[in-house]
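lol ok so funny story. i was supposed to be doing the assay writeup but got distracted and ended up predicting the structure for this chain instead. priorities right. anyway since i did it might as well share w the group, maybe its usefull for someone
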Amino acid sequence: MNHRLFIISVILILAMSFPGGNTQTAKAAETLSLKVTLERLVNGLNGAFDSGAQLRAEQLSNTPAELQHQRVHRTFTRIDAPDVGQNVFVVTLRNGGPNGPIDMVEFQVWTLTIDTPNNAIKMAPYRFKDPKTYAPIGRDPKKMKGLKASDLIASDGAAGCIIYWRAVDTVARGLSGKPCLGALSPTRPVLSWEWTYILGDTTLWMSFAGRDDNDNIVFGRKDQLPWRLDRVSR
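and the output, tada:
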């Protein structure tokens, strides 16, 4: 048994053995569990994920072209930026594969923190105030070491949702907090956004939807079949 899970089990047993300390001991167990989930995310997200294998499988199975998943390449690179936070990631999304252009909407900085009131790991997105300055080094985000909080602003719109991660069995699942409202551009209507992430040992599943006031999906796959991004590097 993993030693952290063993410790959690011992704490829970002690909580049942000493009723007077149940509340305090249960809180300690929750805190330890959140720390384990945070460590899982910090280690599990760091690297590159690609949906190429999913697309190839769909092509081989003769999935209609309009139903095939677009190939995307997503990277999470942890950087040393204490002015921003303890667990900081630069995130890029490239359409078409690792050599594709950076999607500037999703060229972001994410911070991971323990959110005790919500019993979750909070992943908050930020944008660069001047993204064009940082885009040229987007292929090597580690060069952003020492990034300052003053270089960033809170993200908004489709990619501005805060994600709350929780451990579920052997995976970590991240769901967008509600409400999460935003427009794709200043001239387009405001939509309600939903994001779902599931992180396993070697795979990151993700889906999203932008819904109008009638709950119709205006942006995103109508069938909501998730992208399967397999880990390709750490």
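Residues 14 and 206 are 38 Å apart (CA to CA). The chain has a mean pLDDT of 88.
back to the writeup now i swear
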